[in-house]
Write a structure and sequence with these properties.
alpha/beta; Rossmann fold; 10 helices; binds nicotinamide-adenine-dinucleotide
């Protein structure tokens, strides 16, 4: 018999999705409490990548983010101004953007005790997630999704990736983020089309997994068509929950 050593390896992982409003309001402690989870070691270094379309649609956001980190400088250290990058599918079409993020990780000495935060749509989250998963063989990554789809699907999941050789998501990893934080206010600047995009995913998931959820979507149809906040938040929350359940119970999050 061939000599061999074999072990079963069990990996336990806590995957968290938090829901809040106005995450960069200085009074809001959700981000602070999530990042400063260890009292020792001085302020945590944070590098933050921001979706360009969002930054343009909400011109005060960069200043809001900087004020937030200034107010929490006792535990958080934003190493440079938010790094604004083009979002959307184009950002996933070249490895160059992953390198761009990783060069900032290198420049500001972002290590495995620091955080790489991405505030943006699913495409930017996928690209930055890949940069985080592969720099130093994995640094802490926090996702702040800013489209309906990314708040109820892509941002909540454990996958990342970019497109290559004409194929979608050809290069990528399965790497659960340190945390996902959904801020409903981030959706205010979306186009009607991008607000609706996430509904489609919710309907798909409801069809597959949850008849009650499907009925609730039908009941809320007019409110959803009118982008009423309460109806949108119900849809996002339940869809994200179904995704989380699947990740947690399907047997293999990786
Ligand atoms: N990782 C996963 O598990 C997973 C699952 C599903 C989909 N995805 C990926 O998600 C991507 C699609 O993501 P998406 O639907 O979030 O779209 P997106 O990221 O392409 O964003 C759509 C557009 O909206 C802009 N934008 C983002 N947030 C904004 C805001 N708040 N205000 C104004 N503009 C904003 C973006 O710059 C972009 O131009 C695809 O690449 C898909 O492959 C990943």
């Amino acid at each position: 018999m061939t000599p061999r050593i074999e072990r079963d390896v069990t990996v336990s992982w806590r995957h968290q999705v938090l829901f809040t409003q106005n995450i960069f309001d200085a009074e809001n402690a959700v981000l602070r409490d999530t990042l400063a989870d260890e009292p020792e070691g001085g302020p945590r270094k944070v590098l933050l990548v921001l979706d360009e379309a969002l930054a343009e649609a909400r011109p005060t956001l960069v200043a809001e983010i900087q004020s937030y980190f200034k107010a929490h400088a006792d535990v958080l250290n934003l190493v440079c101004a938010p790094f604004v990058m083009e979002g959307g599918e184009r950002t996933k079409n070249s490895y160059f953007h992953v390198s761009e993020v990783q060069s900032q990780v290198d420049r500001y000495h972002i290590d495995r005790h620091s955080y790489l935060i991405c505030v943006g749509g699913g495409a930017l989250l996928d690209m930055v997630g890949l940069a985080a998963a592969t720099a130093h063989r994995g640094i802490r990554h926090v996702r702040i999704p800013t489209t309906t789809l990314s708040q109820n699907d892509s941002g909540v999941g454990v996958k990342n990736g970019i497109n290559a050789f004409g194929k979608k998501n050809f290069i990528g990893t399965f790497a659960p983020p340190f945390a996902v934080i959904n801020d409903f206010q981030m959706l205010a600047t979306l186009t009607a089309r991008d607000k609706r995009n996430g509904y489609v995913e919710a309907i798909k998931v409801a069809c597959i997994r949850d008849a009650e959820f499907f009925k609730a979507i039908e009941t809320d149809a007019d409110a959803l068509a009118g982008f009423e906040p309460a109806a949108m938040q119900r849809l996002i929350h339940r869809c994200a929950e179904l995704h989380m359940n699947h990740i947690a119970t399907s047997g293999d999050p990786f």
